[in-house]
Amino acid sequence: MVSDIMRLDVTSVWLVLSVVLVFAAGVFYLYSLILRHLAKTTVRNKVVLITDSLSTLGNECAKLFHTGGARMILCGNDWEKLETLAERLMSESDPTLTFPPKLVELDFSNMESVPEIIPEILECYGSLDVLVFNSSMKVKAPVQSLTLQMDRTVMDVNYFGPVTLVKGVLPSLISRRTGHILLVNSIQGKLTVPFRATYAASKHAVQAFFECLRAEVQEYGITVSTVNHTFIKTPSTTSKDKDTATHVKPKSLGVNPEEMASELLKALSSKKKEILMAHSIIPKAALYVRSLFPNLFFAIMAAGVRNTAAVEMSND
Q1: Rounded distance between C-alpha atoms, residue 22 and residue 254, angstroms
Q2: Which of 55, 102, 130, 202 suits a disulfide with 124, CB 3.0-4.6 Å?
Q3: Widest distance between CA atoms in the chain
Q4: What is the pTM of this model?
Q5: What does the pLDDT read at residue 81?
Q6: Averaged pLDDT in 10-residue chunks for the chain of 316 residues
């Protein structure tokens, strides 16, 4: 008798738990649908600029925002590729629900031309609603092997370029008292890794600038969001010169560009100020270790350098 009652009680508990889990899953699914709908309507009729539309992530953002009804300004350093991208977007979308993208040739490695391009950007639609700073130049090499010219080029692309552009369009955003600035930045804007000193320095600098900017423009109704990601999956590329410092071999694991673009769209909807994109717990744990136990973090980084040197010596 007692055992029957106990079995009945266990069955009842499992039944209640199952109902709760099904209900929670249903609520979560409905919430996800609502978020996706809000995200899609967020950019409708908005003027959205993407600084590097030709990158893997830039392509995905352009596709997602364009189908959402945004008035796109696609920037890149190759005019023919920009035209190809625009033609593909138009051929894959309903022309009654979308706008033909505007194209602007923009190359942050040529800083002298950037101030002259800002008026051209503002003339596209007369105003800007969303700016996605997606440009990035990667460098992986020991400090002593990089020239100062390379350091300057990386800083131009990753720091001075975005800063120059945002300063140029900021008066327009302030006068309209609206706008959303979104910086796509590496996790190395918060966390340093050996052999990436120049890259990490540029990412730290641009991170600090946009965090300061966030506080300064909040009173004007302008939102500034920063997204720090580990690495974005890209198609495999090869370099004839494997020692060239400006090439970084793509990883087999990482954030999907489609997932990243969707996260950026949700950030525009939620106006979340800071986002960390990492599928592994290691980057998040590293950030905490760096803050709470800096000496341990430094020791781990130094050990990694010694291991790398030992492997290179064994291969010689």
Answers
A1: 31
A2: 102
A3: 88
A4: 0.78
A5: 96
A6: 58 67 65 53 92 94 95 96 96 90 95 94 95 91 92 96 97 96 92 89 96 96 93 58 41 75 92 86 78 81 65 41
Site of tokens 């990667």: 138
Amino acid in the structure at residue 222: I
Sign of the CA dihedral with 6 first, then 11, 17, and 19 last: negative
Query: What one-letter code names the amino acid at 242?
Result: K
Q: What is the DSSP string of 32-101?
A: HHHHHHHHHHHSTT-EEEETTTTSHHHHHHHHHHHHTT-EEEEEES-HHHHHHHHHHHHHTS-TTT--PP
Kindly list the catalytic residues: 199
Which residues, other chains included, contact 49 with Cβ-Cβ below 8 Å and sequence gap of 6+?
72, 73, 75, 121, 128, 130, 131, 132
Provide the 8-state DSSP code for 232: B
Q: List helix spans (H) across 126-192.
A: 148-155, 161-176
Quickly count: other Cβ atoms within 10 Å of residue 164's Cβ.
Answer: 16
For residues 247 and 239, give the distance between their C-alpha atoms in angstroms, rounded to a whole number. Answer: 7
**Residue 72 corresponds to which tokens in the numbers above?**
């796109």
Burial 248-260 (b: 16+ CB within 10 A, else e): beeeeebbebebb
Residue 169's nearest CA partner among 110, 122, 206 is 122
72 residue type, one letter:
M
Residue 244 to residue 8: CA distance in whole angstroms: 70
H or E segment and range at residue 296? helix 294-315
- Angle between the N-to-C axes of helices 56-67 and 257-270, in degrees from 0 to 180, rounded to the nearest 10: 50
